[in-house]
Protein 1
Amino acid sequence: MKHPKILHEDEDIIVVVKPCGMSSEGDSGLEQDVVGFLKTHIYEESDGEEADPYVAAVHRLDKPVGGVMVFAKNQKAAANLSDQIKAGETKKYYQAILCGELPEAEGTFEDYLIIDKNKKMSKVVKPGTKNAKKAILDYEELDALETDKGIFTYALITLHTGRFHQIRCQMAAHKVPIYGDRKYNKMKSNVKQIGLIATRLEFKHPATGENMVFKTEPFGEAFDILDAEEEW
């Protein structure tokens, strides 16, 4: 996937599947980001009438991580969606390929994280550490894969808080790092894409209040291991 795939668009929101390796919104580089892509899309669809369309990222996905995202097309929608996220009313689900075995078939990881600004990484610290924030996620084993490279776990992850690099950091701290993660996984791999995709997003439409659900199947090189399991 080279460009975002648009799943839904109306006057208030636009929902896309973000490709792996694309930033959610502009950074210091010159590479195209999702917000820039959507602004160009809206401009072209309006035949140039919307010279500078409003597009706001109300939540983030790490650059290496692909998956479902919602963007606001006006300030009122942005405020409403942001309030839903802060109140914990949105539901975010991820699928992941983990290196190793989970401690239980399903469970919860609850940790405290701080950001190391120099390394641009998060790390787990003791409760009460200055500037630490609570990070909570649920996990569920979908399949255990025995390969000649070791045991991998195919897992569903439900995110309850939105900390910086939260899933990647917590999984690594609990000794089940994400396959292909260059920052938190010390296991050497030729896989160029991280095994983490945001596969389901639920929220209420900011204008109508309708319950909105959007999904995508996991995609990319890291998830090829699911198809290859039978070969080992």
Protein 2
Amino acid sequence: MNSPGFPNRLFAQPLRELGRALIFLLTALSRMRLTRLQIGETLRQVYFAGVRSLVIIVTCGFFVGLVLTLQTYDTLTRFGAGDAVSVVLALSLFRELGPVLTAILFAGRAGTSITAEIGLMKATEQLDALDLMAIDPMERIVQPRLIGSLIAVPALVLIFNVTALLGGVAFAVLLMGVDPITFWGNMQATVELGRDFGHGMLKAVVFGFLAAWLAVYFGWTAKPTSEGVALATTQTVIATAIAVLVIDFVLSAFML
């Protein structure tokens, strides 16, 4: 038998948390200012969130391309359609796998770091110190990380797609002997720049904003203890993964 608090934990608490996150986002957006100092800090966050995530993005992208091509080629050859492997690979990457996997990887690498950094600032009272010095923590801490992550994620999606395609080429052309002209020709003839690639990049922008928002929110609201910061980093990964998959379905339904 369910306890009286079960419906509250299942529905009311997530809705309250979503409301707090929306209020936090609106507050952060209303306080945004573009200054030379902010531009420099934003570029530093682009490097921190984007450039320092390249290793995991490139490695995972290459092997995702390898595995996807392996499984796709094996299945298509049973129906005599092995030459269409490049089409399936490109459409899968551009429409779904590139944006979704990159956002989840970003949350696990850079998102947790952002959450932990802001959480530790709160635990060590650095945010309160900024307030005492008449410096808006929202402007100095939150804004650069939001904008930096929003710039970094679409760029990482492009790199993920390119390296995954290289992985697909390495398997199909170099190992299985697929004609390279046929491989690229089928892809170029089928993939539409606006409908397939463009929709995927739109998802990348949305997911980048979502991952940045959740990372800074959970860091900002973390309890100022070691356990609180650890819980906040865990919540960042879980919430981002679930939100990305849900929003991905909604966007895909509208785009198709």
Protein 3
Amino acid sequence: MFGKWYESTCIKIEAVNDTVRRFWLRLPVEAVAFKAGQFVTLDLPISQRRTQRWRSYSIASAVADVAIAPNVIELVIVRLENGAGTTYLFDQFKEGDVVKVREPQGQFVLNEAHLQEELCFVCTGTGVAPFRSMLREISAKKLVDAPMHLIFGTRYEEGLLYRAEFEALAAANENFHYYPVLSRASAADWTGHRGYVHAVYEELFRDKRPANFYLCGWNIMLDEAKERLKNMGYTPQQIIMESYG
């Protein structure tokens, strides 16, 4: 298969909650050239067959972060029930272990033509990873002057990945707006959006003004969002998607 493979070392693992962990991998210097939104593939020791060992994850860190932590990328991974790859990563993989990583790939990257237009990022769960990379890159390089929106859906409040970071970005940048959405919020003091992400972007863009939508998550969310946005009058060129399966 195309793409070079490199030996990488896990330098840190951090549990976010019971089902999500952050992993930091140190790669050779020539392997860390990537664009925000791309993914890497890990070759995990879970099968004799090569392609059954491969698992791909979006890079959650930005290119600009490499200057701070040389040759290091961050992945945020959710444990899948009966998933061979995540079972290994959660139960056996540890700091100091070495894993083969294929060079960054993928076309889910910011279109330069969109950088001066309104952007809306819509995601669920760990689908926030490529958007975190994009937003860190945009912020570090001051790439966008137009309004940006991050609509992030998850079940419970503890699933709001990078919450403090996004809240700080919204406080510091008047053009960035953060909308956490909880589908199973139980806390009486939760004052944010409840339900699903679709109602939020439909309300935000009810005037159907020009915008570009980047979507990342499971197929069921993507399919519904694509159909709703098309019904709102947005074209396929304005809807860019990345599926997590």
